[in-house]
Write a structure and sequence with these properties.
The complex is a heterodimer of chains A (about 280) and B (about 240). With about 280 residues, chain A is mainly alpha-helical. Chain A contains eleven helices and no strands. Chain A has one domain. Chain B has a six-stranded mixed beta sheet, sandwiched between helices. In chain B, strands 2-1-4-5 form a four-stranded antiparallel beta sheet, covered by helices on one side. The chains are: A mainly alpha (about 280), B alpha/beta (about 240). The interface between A and B is large, with 46 and 50 residues.
Chain lengths: ~280, ~240
Amino acid sequence: MSVQVESATLPATSPAARRRRVFSVVLRDFYVMRRSVMRVLEIVYWPTIEVLIWGYLSVFLQARRVPAVVAALLGGVLLWQVLFRSQTEVSIAFLEDIWSRNLLNVFVSPLTAGEYLAGIIVFGALKLVVNVLLMAGLALALYGFGITRLGLALVPFMALLLLMGWALAIVTIGVILRFGQGAEVIAWALAFAFQPFSAVFYPVTVLPPLMRAIAHAVPASYVFEGMRSVLAGHGLHWSTLGAAALLDLLYVAGALWFFARMLHRVRASGGLSRFGE
Amino acid sequence: MPTSIPGPVLEARDLVKRFGSVTAVDGVSLSVGAGEVVGLLGPNGAGKTTTLHMLLGLVTPDGGSVRLFGEDLASHRVAALSRVNFAAGYVHLPGRLHVEENLTAFAYMYGLRHPRRRVEEMIELFDLGGLRKRQFRYLSSGQQTRVQLAKALLNDPRLLVLDEPTASLDPDAGDRIRELLLRLARDSGRAMLITSHNMLEIERMTDRIHFLSAGRIVATGTAGELAESYGAADLEEVFLRVARG
């Protein structure tokens, strides 16, 4: 009689094992957040500060009869947070592994680079939901600005900004892999490099020709232009959102290619080993 | 999945790694059979850690090949690494996480069928019950090593790779860990590849030793065979002779 002994692990390449590995990253990031008062406070602190500063500035300008400024500025602040937070949350989740000198444990496990990215993106997205809900609630309570004023357009706006933020985060991780922990400042800085070209608080048309050309290559600029159009009652131009979606796909594909190149390079140069030192 | 593997668990052939003009590993070939404990010895900079990191896929070799469980590591990475695990004195676990949280996260990462049950088994095996709610960063070196070994055994690996696992431990804690590892090797028949600067540890634990110097394997054998071939009293004397050329 033969006895079938059940293996302790699921077949490594099975979908169930892949899901479990992605979940492990989400779970780990949740534990890290739960154990850090600062990480929990961050969810509340920055969104609150942003809404207060920009909200009251908008109210002040409105009082000076600058038309429709509250909605445009607050809408800009809220949607910018989607882009900025989606980039920083994912980048910081990766940095946590470097700071805790745990990265080698991750890379010698069966977790693939794609599963790792998926895990930190899922957790970053969950935190972002809390973030945006909080800001939207504050904007409604303090200034009577309801984010739902954007209607159904909010869905593609957020999706497009999330994709761009994740693409920037993947590039950030690639840069940190390549250049080491000294490059970690990019986790907070990269999104801001795109802000002048994203038309967050002003239309693309105010930019000089060269900057305008660059802005047309930034998916976020179409979103913020679209947001102002919707708030002004001019409706949504789906063709411009289509262009933004195409650009986003290019950004994500480029980011994944860059990340894969950097990972290949640090494995070849021995740079990955040095994250254990 | 079969638990016994015909042929070597690990087979590395002619591994070469260069960092710029420095050849860190120069034609290293080694194998580890099922249930075998193999030691990798050598002075600092001999290429031990680089060799281990190539065997684990952290560093891509410039030449040679690594086969785990009979399959090429580069093309069967996920399946191979699900049956291997690793612990090293220089690699930590997330410091803010509790012992139990750390083990649970890694249990899922290794795709265990029953993660929570396995974590409990490891907590019991490594006597971590009183520490399960303690953050990793507040544990003593000996306790941290026990947690790292518990993590390294979560997936019941067929090959356990240990890079100086007892480096930061006092003699008593080091001895306890060695006893535990020996018991685990004997009872389960798992293969182990271990590096250490502690000659007594290597002598006690290993079935076979590879001596590395300047990126090459310069001697292979049991502790007794090596001592005899070098006309030395013990492994420490062999080490000194190899290290000093």
